[in-house]
Write a structure and sequence with these properties.
Number of strands: 8
Strand content: 15-25%
Order of helices and strands: HEEEHEHEHEHHHHHHEHEHH
Strand order of the largest sheet: 1-2-4-3-5-6-7-8
Distance between the termini: 81 Å
CATH superfamily: Alpha/Beta hydrolase fold, catalytic domain
Helix content: 40-55%
CATH topology: Rossmann fold
Oligomer: single chain
């Protein structure tokens, strides 16, 4: 009896393990199919720059956040831009097929944006940045002011902080960086421990549960879209280590919209406060809830605000 029980228990475990392995391999194949053959790579003084273009109309440079790449930039463009805009979504240093060179800085990433636009024959763009796309977006507006018509920061990192809750935010960032290194770990956590991962990302799973189908699909696309995570790990490590722009942003003159949730526990609200304190005439769109995933939570309001921002001319 015991021998029969052990046999069937082991058999069930093997079947379950085989099913999990099959599911992982199928998801990884879909992830690689989604990113392969859909972008262009351009050689530059900072190594390869990967990018994708879409839309038609006034140009917008869309800068992805940590764990992203050109594919997240494309997702961001579809989420916040209306008709009448073309968009350019590069993979930042260390993400997907964009090179990371040791010692790289956010300043150099900003210069790389200017180089990319030069090669594409684009003189001036509006800039929309998400999360840790913020530092290089800010420095692009600072170092190449003639290229930027407006700047929109969505839950962006701006400045270092010594606030007590910054240590917890840093710990969350460190944990994400370690998870990104391993495809199977990222996949398993986001597949089977989604509420815990959402909290790690600085959001409240209960708030997300209240979303409608379209906005919940955007959350899924953002999280599932970070597969394969190991192809983004070098970029996430760069984000965690590079120096923030801090008070240098006082030199920015582009019209700036700052969108942030007060309960963001990954990119704390002090980032929005720092942007408002230093950038002349910066405007704030504040939400009390939504955390670091405020974009899908408040997508319609944010989309309307971005549309109004992009209509500004400098």
């Amino acid at each position: 009896m015991l021998r029969s029980f052990l046999f069937w228990s082991i058999a069930a475990l093997l079947v379950a393990a085989a099913a999990l392995v099959t599911l992982f391999l199928l998801d990884m194949r879909a992830a690689y199919q989604r990113i392969q053959g859909h972008s262009t790579v351009l050689a530059s003084p900072w190594g390869d720059i990967e990018y994708v273009r879409g839309g038609a109309g006034e140009p917008v440079l869309v800068i992805h956040g940590s764990g992203g790449g050109f594919d997240q930039g494309k997702l961001l463009a579809h989420a916040v831009l209306g008709e009448g805009y073309s968009w350019i979504a590069p993979s930042r240093f260390g993400y997907l097929r964009s090179t990371f060179l040791p010692g790289a800085t956010f300043d150099e990433q900003a210069h790389a944006y200017a180089f990319l636009l030069d090669q594409l024959g684009i003189e001036k763009v509006a800039v929309v940045a998400l999360s840790h796309g913020g530092p290089s977006a800010l420095l692009f507006a600072l170092l190449h002011p003639e290229r930027v018509s407006s700047l929109t920061l969505l839950s962006c990192g701006v400045a270092a902080s010594t606030a007590p809750n910054q240590a917890q935010a840093n710990a969350q960032g460190d944990a994400l960086m370690k998870i990104y290194r391993h495809d199977v770990l990222y996949w398993a956590i986001t597949r089977f421990l989604r509420p815990w991962f959402v909290k790690l990302m600085g959001a409240d799973a209960q708030v997300l549960d209240q979303l409608g189908a379209e906005d919940r699909a955007l959350v899924d696309d953002l999280i599932v879209g970070m597969n394969p995570s190991s192809a983004r790990a070098a970029g996430a490590a760069f984000d965690n280590q590079a120096a923030m722009p801090n008070a240098r942003i006082a030199g920015i003159r582009a019209p700036t919209l700052v969108v942030h949730a007060a309960d963001d526990s990954l990119q704390l609200f002090h980032n929005a406060e720092s942007a408002l304190a230093h950038i002349p005439n910066a405007r704030l769109l504040r939400f009390e809830h939504g955390g670091h995933l405020v974009l899908p939570v408040e997508r319609q309001a944010i989309r309307a605000a971005v549309a109004a921002q992009l209509r500004q001319k400098r």
